[in-house]
Amino acid sequence: MRTFSFEFFPPKDEIAAVDFGINIGRLLRLSPSFVTVTYGAGGSSNERTFALVDYLHNKVGLNTVAHYTCVTSSREKVKADLATLRAMGINRLMLLRGDPQKGDEQFHAPVDGFSYASELIDFTRKLYGNDFSIGSGAYPEKHPEAPSAAEDLKYLKKKVEVGCDFLITQFFFDNSRYFDFVSRARAAGIACPIIPGILPITHYSQLERFVRISGAHIPKEFLQDLEANKTTTNKIAQIGRDFAIAQCRDLLMSGAPGIHFYTLNKSRATVEIFESLLGT
Questions:
Q1: Which of 87, 138, 197, 268 is 20 to 30 Å from 175 by CA-CA measure?
Q2: The one catalytic residue among 7, 227, 272, 275
Q3: Inter-helix orientation angle 175-187/233-253, to 10°
């Protein structure tokens, strides 16, 4: 069964919250399989994350997946936070290492905490058994900190071995990189679903930052189209939407188990793309 899901982050202020509410309303009618809520850079939005998870899951009625990271959390804090999420009725988690804290170039494990997502996954499985369905992240084009694709795959397999049930990839723009990655993962013995993550480009200014974050390859023709229209916002949004639609259709027709949309808390592009896929 294919899954269609959306990722959100907690609004930073009142205006963003109103905008977020409007966008949630637009996306609700699409009946997503689930939504995910990020934990925030450097673990900064713990309380906002939990409040939004509770709201979406228990007030709105969406199947909500809570992100949780290793950042700033001791084992005791992890235990307490997992208990809070479980008491909310949450039964799906995205367990990740997380990005370095603001101002740090490298990730530093907290005191009595975890250095890797695999350790957090293992800890959670041992505490809760199968009470949680656990997801984690995957990088089709290698994690930026991994010394090689082979090493990256080794660490990914470790996450699955200790209890990860499904994977959601970092966004990418070249489907061949995703399918090559899935092929290598299967050959390495990783059998769980690997859901492709898609991020529609809506502004040219996003491009450099997104590529730097993910290391994603941009297909030549797509890049040329974006660069030729970089001063025309509406045209960039159209190019990004049309590219994402074609990318998603190809992924689904070629056997991807679903699509996970990185919405950036915006709805228009995601709604248009998703609606175009309903007949795929």
A1: 268
A2: 7
A3: 30
